[in-house]
TrEMBL record:
Organism: Kribbella solani
Residue numbers annotated as active site: S73 (nucleophile)
UniProtKB keywords: Hydrolase, Pyridoxal phosphate
Record family assignment: Belongs to the ACC deaminase/D-cysteine desulfhydrase family.
Protein known as: 1-aminocyclopropane-1-carboxylate deaminase
Hydrolase found in the keyword field: yes
Domain Tryptophan synthase beta chain-like PALP: start-end pairs: 25-293
Keyword Iron-sulfur belongs to the record: no
């Protein structure tokens, strides 16, 4: 993403040890990979996913980026920022109906110049079909289409670069999973004795494993690396939360000074602590927890 180097991304992103008696009591060491600190407006896996996609759009002569997402999508927000700083027009196609006033995430995207449009949920499920894409071209003209969550071959390759930044030995890496691009890339870059544990934030994502394999196939020719999904920590579904999750977020911030993103990272970290508490990891296990997004929306 050479167009955005003026933003001075913090790469490699920092790594910090998570000191917590609930972990040390189980003999498990956890470090946080703070990708949320790469840049306040294009953090974490969004920088890594957009890196090669934005460069390719520029090389192909596109002036407009169009992408899809839910009302709380970090990808929508990051694409708006990439367009603002990279001199692209941006269009965000949002799942569901418009609700005013806009939530902070969509308000940020609009403030960064993104044009928001909405598809009902039935049409949104068909967003990759030719009739829907054709209608979008008819309405908005020429654009570079970025998939929901930014997950495609270029994004997978960008996310795989994270593994070279992890210089200390570890056994497992935890990451939140939306569309699966981050997991697909990271798993491909790990050693044979390491594993990625993905925590889906969507309820009933029965096709997610196949979609991740398809992403890996596009980049590497087939399933790559050791990985698995822990699918019982969605807390009701995408952008759903419970009092239990909110209490965990509050306690984590009090203990560690990190406000977890309630849509993604909070569910992942809850899963990690719950699995440790349940004895899923032997004493001596070293875990990396990937913090990809911020719990706060940046001000414009």
């Amino acid at each position: 993403m050479e167009e955005l180097r003026v933003l001075a991304p913090r790469l490699p992103s920092p790594v910090s040890e998570l000191v917590d008696d609930r972990l040390t009591g189980a003999g498990v060491r956890v470090v946080l990979k703070r990708d949320d600190l790469i840049h306040p407006e294009i953090p974490g896996n969004k920088w890594r996913k957009l890196k090669y996609n934005v460069s390719a759009a520029r090389d192909q002569g596109f002036r407009t980026l169009l992408t899809f997402g839910g009302a709380y999508s970090n990808h929508i927000r990051a694409t708006a920022a990439a367009g603002y700083y990279g001199d692209f027009d941006t269009i965000g196609v949002i799942r569901g109906e418009e609700h005013l006033p806009l939530n902070p995430s969509l308000a940020y995207a609009e403030a960064r110049g993104m044009r928001l449009t909405y598809l009902d949920r039935t049409t949104y499920r068909a967003k990759t079909t030719e009739p829907v894409i054709s209608d979008l071209h008819q309405e908005f003209g020429d654009f570079c289409l970025l998939p929901e969550g930014g997950s495609n071959k270029k994004a997978v390759v960008g996310c795989a670069e994270l593994t070279a930044e992890l210089t200390e030995p570890f056994d497992a890496l935890f990451c939140a999973v939306g569309t699966g691009g981050t997991l697909a890339g990271i798993a491909a870059g790990l050693a044979e004795d390491q594993m990625v544990i993905g925590v889906p934030v969507l309820k009933g994502a029965t096709s997610l494993e196949d979609e991740i394999v398809q992403l890996q196939r596009s980049a590497y020719g087939g399933r790559a690396g050791n990985w698995r999904l822990e699918s019982d920590y969605h807390f009701g579904g995408y952008a759903k939360r419970t009092a239990e999750l909110d209490a965990f977020i509050e306690e984590f911030e009090e203990r560690h000074g990190v406000l977890l993103d309630w849509v993604y990272e909070a569910k992942m970290m809850y899963a990690l602590f719950d699995l440790v508490r349940g004895g899923a990891f032997a004493a001596g296990t070293a875990i990396v927890a990937l913090i990809s997004g911020s719990g706060t929306v940046p001000e414009v």
